[in-house]
UniProtKB/TrEMBL annotation, chain A:
Keywords: 2Fe-2S, Cell membrane, Disulfide bond, Electron transport, Iron, Iron-sulfur, Membrane, Metal-binding, Oxidoreductase, Respiratory chain, Transmembrane, Transmembrane helix, Transport. The chain crosses the membrane at residues 70-91, 111-133. This is Cytochrome bc1 complex Rieske iron-sulfur subunit. Residues 55-64 have a biased composition (Basic and acidic residues). It comes from Marinitenerispora sediminis. Residues 285-354 form the Rieske domain.
TrEMBL record, chain B:
It is a multi-pass membrane protein. It catalyses: a quinol + 2 Fe(III)-[cytochrome c](out) = a quinone + 2 Fe(II)-[cytochrome c](out) + 2 H(+)(out). It comes from the Bacteria. The chain crosses the membrane at residues 46-65, 111-130, 142-162, 174-195, 207-231, 252-279, 326-353, 373-393, 405-429. This is Cytochrome bc1 complex cytochrome b subunit. One of its GO terms (biological process) is respiratory electron transport chain. GO terms for cellular component: plasma membrane.
Length: 374, 550
């Protein structure tokens, strides 16, 4: 209930005026009669678009004050609008020399100058318009009837009669052969858009189950070209994030595509000892106490990048699935279900860590046939 | 009628249009459209205005944004990342930020407007829910609104994914993981959407098309439909003098509402721009480009994705199972798709569910006061509590760090919370509603408590009750009688209806009974009818059991 105290001026002038469509009759539950204050204003001739009972004008003095403050706001808007244009040119882009918005601090400053002036200008227009509506214009409590929504039974039956006659005469109801063949004609066309989408991507086949890792492939520290020796693990505190050494030299980085990285990235972890849940086979995939797990969480695929050495737990920061590195990366907490796939390792003749084959199971988020063999 | 005839030029324009469209009558009717005066009717407006701002700023961003995942070595204005491999999408977003004047501002306005767009819609929807404004004849508009809200989640997620910075790519990764979890077809859907394996080179161009063309187009169409229906059916209104099921009272479109709404548009715009000027949002240059192998902790999605993020975090893996070796990762499916699906179904179907339970087929133009629909209100609060807890659970790592609580303990607190919380919320809310109804009834009978204590000649102290204003009486009396529906309903002749014997019929009667059983009856209460009713009546309504209940 806003402006409850404005319920005055009622009663006068309602009767005897032409009733405009969409406005209430003067009977019944219009407005309660108000207080004495309205006497003066209702005696003036009412010229507004809505009946006097529904219009609660502001006093002349209020309106004058309103006009002045609205105008003041609009002036503020004008000035800060100009300020916006000025601040646009105040901070040039890099091509035009320093200090430019290419520098983050200057970009921030330019942002504040432009945003601040624009916000002020918009606010002032809003304020001016609000003052206009609340202090210059009358307060209205206009009432209009809700439309009667359901049509009258007569209209309804006339419509349905008309419609059915039309349907009948057109033959749509009477001639089933034509109707049915038309529906049949639509079916293949309805499928067409689905079929047309076929070439948006390849069929999955078993490509989600294999990665680029092959037996004998060396590995590099993620983000560098440095090949990893078994002894490196002792130096770096027990955990390295690694990628295959690119079989093909790319023009940049480690030469692997993002697709390849997304599947091949591993965590190399040096363990003092393995736990009881580590099978013989899983132990045989380790080398010099180093175990390699896929870094991609089996929940929905974030890199499970956090390793806590004391508890030998791998934590995925996305939804906190926690894997036990000493026990085949089995899930010890959180929403993931499958252990992180393990990459078989060995040490080659030169002392470098190499893969001894592809991962033990499908890498990444669990999918329908992730646990099915090939 | 008016003292000032329309100026000649205006008349000429008016005639020009009317000659071609015959608009004088419709035009006048529409300019006379009435908007009830209440702040809560502005929530939907905020949503509309932020949508307009999104369209404007979004078009600006498209002038420079390159939806391409081609990898390039950055060599541009932002020196810290020179020489770094990144996608063209990310590089072009850096360009917008550091080379285009006003680009950073427009990006921040676009992002803030997105947050406020979804937030205002959500609160608007809660208003409509708790006041029963979705009831007949407005069910279809409620449904359209629900679809707009759900589509906006998707639209926002896709927009968030475009700049290809680290959090943005992580969002896409999670999307991919969730799609993969769909039984049987998941891998196919994922391959077709991504054009191959993750991340591929297609996903950003495709999300871009969806983000700037398809979804905004659908949203625009739905929003237009939403407003046309609103216009035709008119607003609901809160109870008050003069406001009835047949008549709506408020500010007319012309001249007052147009100016008020215009002013409000500028206010909304000003707040969004003000935030964008002074509160940094999504500083992609600090996050760095996406790579599938790195991550930072404490990643947060935009707020409207928070409930799904939280659901993914706390849903345990106990229900994952295999059928004949095929994996069904329930812990991804339920929180990742089920939560959104449940929300969608519950929202879209609610008006019809409630109608089916209560058998209420009447038109409603006067809004319910939430207390007068205690079961609905309690259900709404319970659902909001689940949503809120899931949303908080989406930041459990931050909560854990801030309050030094064990991370896993926070998970457990939320797991228990989402089960216990809504039950408690339901019971408490319902009690509060019924308590408020009782107080209303009391106020209606005795007037309001004046705070003045008087001593009667007998020595007894009483509080003086003053007569409530006619407005208050009107509002209080707006409570409609609630027809109680009994489990073993019989028709007029005392014969059990065949419907009541079917399983669905029985369920329906049970639900209806549960939905309507608690209610303080106002029937027969006369305003200010006196003191003598004072004792023993507070719970009278609840005890007025119909004769044939067991
Ligand atoms: C209707 C609701 C919309 C929502 C909720 C939305 C949301 C978002 C969000 C959250 C972002 C990330 C912004 C950032 O960089 O921080 C974004 C980016 C973007 N949006 Fe929208 N948007 C909407 C409509 C549109 C429209 C209609 C267009 C264009 C016609 C558009 C064009 C873009 C472009 C080009 C970007 C990438 C540029 C960038 O991130 O800086 N958006 N959107
Ligand atoms: S992606 Fe690792 S816990 Fe969800």
């Amino acid at each position: 209930m806003t402006d409850n105290n404005n319920l005055n001026g009622a009663g006068a002038g309602a009767e005897g005026r032409d009733r405009v469509i969409g406005t209430p009759t003067a009977d019944g539950d219009t407005l309660v009669s108000g207080t004495e204050e309205s006497a003066a204003s209702s005696q003036q001739r009412h010229i507004g678009p809505y009946p006097a009972v529904e219009t609660h004008p502001r006093t002349e003095e209020q309106q004058r004050k309103g006009e002045r403050s609205a105008a003041l706001w609009f002036l503020v808007a004008f000035v800060s609008g100009v300020g916006f244009l000025v601040s646009y040119f105040l901070f040039p882009p890099a091509a035009d020399g320093a200090p430019s918005i290419a520098h983050p601090a200057t970009a921030q400053l330019a942002n504040m100058a432009m945003g601040g002036t624009l916000a002020l200008s918009l606010f002032a227009i809003g304020a001016g318009m609000t003052v206009w509506a609340r202090q210059v214009m009358p307060h209205y409590e206009v009432s209009t009837p809700y439309d009667e929504l359901p049509s009258s039974p007569k209209e309804k039956s006339s419509f349905s009669d008309f419609f059915m006659r039309g349907a009948h005469e057109s033959g749509f109801t009477k001639r089933p052969l034509m109707r049915r063949t038309l529906i049949a004609a639509m079916l293949p066309l309805g499928l067409a858009p689905v079929v047309l989408l076929r070439d948006t991507g390849p069929l999955p086949g078993d490509r989600l189950k294999h990665t680029m890792w092959e037996s004998g492939m060396r590995m590099v520290v993620e983000g560098t070209d440095r090949e990893i020796r078994a002894t490196d693990l002792d130096r770096v505190g027990g955990m390295i994030s690694a990628l295959p050494k690119a079989p093909h030299e790319g023009e940049h980085g480690h030469g692997l595509t993002l697709n390849e990285q997304a599947k091949a990235v591993i965590l190399l972890i040096k363990m003092d000892e393995f736990g009881p849940d580590m099978t013989e086979q899983q132990r045989s995939w380790t080398a010099d106490g180093i175990v390699a797990y896929s870094k991609i969480c089996t929940h929905v695929g974030c890199p499970a990048a956090l390793y806590e050495r004391t508890t030998h737990r791998i934590l995925c920061p996305c939804h906190q699935s926690t894997f036990d590195a000493a026990n085949g990366a089995k899930v010890v907490f959180g929403p993931a279900h499958r252990p992180l796939p393990q990459l078989p390792l060995r040490v080659d003749d030169e002392g470098y860590l190499v893969a001894a084959g592809d991962f033990s199971s499908a890498v990444g988020p669990t999918f329908w046939d992730a646990e099915k063999g090939d | 009628m008016s003292d000032t005839p329309a100026p000649k030029s205006l008349r000429a324009v008016g005639n020009f249009i009317d000659d071609r469209f015959h608009l004088a009558k419709t035009g006048e009717k529409n300019l006379r459209k009435v908007f009830p005066n209440h702040w809560s009717f502005m929530l939907g407006e905020i949503a509309l205005y932020s949508f307009i701002i999104l369209l404007l700023t979004g078009v600006f961003l498209t002038l420079w944004f390159k939806p391409s995942m081609t990898e390039i070595v950055y060599d541009g204005s932002y020196e810290r990342l020179n020489g770094v491999l990144m996608s063209e999408a990310y590089a072009s977003t850096l360009h917008i930020t550091f080379d285009v004047r006003g680009g950073l501002l427009m990006r921040q306005i676009h992002h803030w407007a997105a947050l406020i767009f979804v937030a205002s819609m959500t609160i608007h929807m809660l208003r409509v829910f708790f006041t029963g404004a979705f009831r007949k004849p407005r069910e279809i508009n409620w449904t359209i609104g629900a679809i707009i809200l759900l589509l906006s989640f998707v639209e926002g997620l896709f927009g968030y994914s475009l700049p290809d910075d680290l959090p943005s790519g992580m969002g896409v990764r999670i999307l991919q993981g969730v799609i993969l979890s769909i039984p049987v077809i998941g891998t196919y859907v994922m391959m077709f959407l991504f054009g191959g394996e993750f991340p591929g080179e297609d996903i950003i161009p495709r999300l871009y098309m969806l983000h700037i063309l398809l979804i905004p187009g659908i949203l625009l169409a739905l929003i237009v439909a939403h407003f046309m229906i609103l216009w035709h059916q008119k607003h609901t209104q809160y109870p008050g003098t003069g406001r009835t099921e047949k008549k709506v009272v408020g500010t007319p479109m012309y001249p007052a509402f147009a100016v008020k709404a215009g002013g409000f548009f500028f206010f909304t715009f000003a707040v969004i721009v003000g935030l964008s000027a002074f509160v940094q949002i999504n500083p992609i240059h600090l996050f760095g480009p996406f790579t599938p192998t790195s991550i930072t902790s404490g990643l947060q999605p935009d707020w409207y994705m928070g409930f799904m993020e939280g659901a993914l975090r706390i849903f345990p893996n106990w229900f994952d199972f295999n059928i004949a070796g095929y994996a069904v990762p329930v812990a991804v499916l339920v929180p990742g798709l089920g939560s959104l699906g449940l929300l969608a179904v519950a929202l879209i179907a609610w008006p019809w569910i409630e109608q089916w339970i209560t058998r209420d087929r009447e038109h409603h133009n006067v809004a319910d006061r939430p207390r007068n629909a205690p079961t609905r209100t309690a259900l709404g609060v319970a659902a909001s509590v689940v949503y809120g807890l899931l949303w908080l659970a989406g930041s459990n790592d931050i909560i854990s760090e801030t309050f030094s609580i064990n991370l896993y303990l926070t998970t457990w607190i939320f797991r228990v919370g989402v089960i216990v919380g809504p039950v408690v919320a339901f019971i408490v809310t319902k009690r509060i509603c019924l308590g408020l109804q009782r107080r209303d009834r009391e106020t209606l009978e005795h007037g309001y408590e004046s705070g003045t204590i008087e001593q009667l000649p007998s020595g007894e102290f009483i509080e003086v009750h003053k007569t409530s204003s006619p407005e208050t009486v009107h509002v209080l009396r707006s409570k409609r009688p609630v027809p109680r529906i009994d489990v073993e309903a019989t028709d007029e002749e005392g014969v059990e209806s065949p419907e009541a014997r079917s399983v669905m019929g029985r369920l329906r009667n049970r639900l209806a009974h549960w939905y309507t059983k608690d209610n303080i009856s106002f029937e027969g209460v006369e305003p200010h009818s006196g003191h003598h009713l004072h004792h023993g009546h507070a719970t009278a309504g609840a005890e007025q059991e119909p004769a044939n209940t067991h």
